[in-house]
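Page 42, continued from yesterday. The earlier attempt failed because a stray header line got pasted into the input along with the sequence. Redoing it now with the clean sequence only.
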Amino acid sequence: MAFDNMSEPDRMVRGTTGWKQYSLVLDVPVDAQTLSYGALLLSRGQVWIDDATFEEVGKDVPESADQSAIRQGIDAEFAKLPPEVKASVIENGKRGMAMSALDPANLEFE
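This time it went through. Structure tokens are written below.
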């Protein structure tokens, strides 16, 4: 599993900004079956995504986030979950934080 939500202070998008290209680089295992992407809005406002693409890069391109730190954070959050939630997450083959989106809108991705 790999994850990057641009949460580092120097990579976080804040306030009103014009269109800008952002890149996330993750090492995807050869046996991966699902790739998920989206946007996280922590306050009121709007988020727009356009022309999202997936591209293969060489091993010489470093990952955009420290995956060991992210895994430690996910492990710490997973440890806080009630036993029945942990069991459900493990049963579904998804070790990580259980998240849900409330009333998502504007999901007309191209």
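Notes: Helices lie at 67-80, 83-91.
Reminder to self: strip header lines before submitting.
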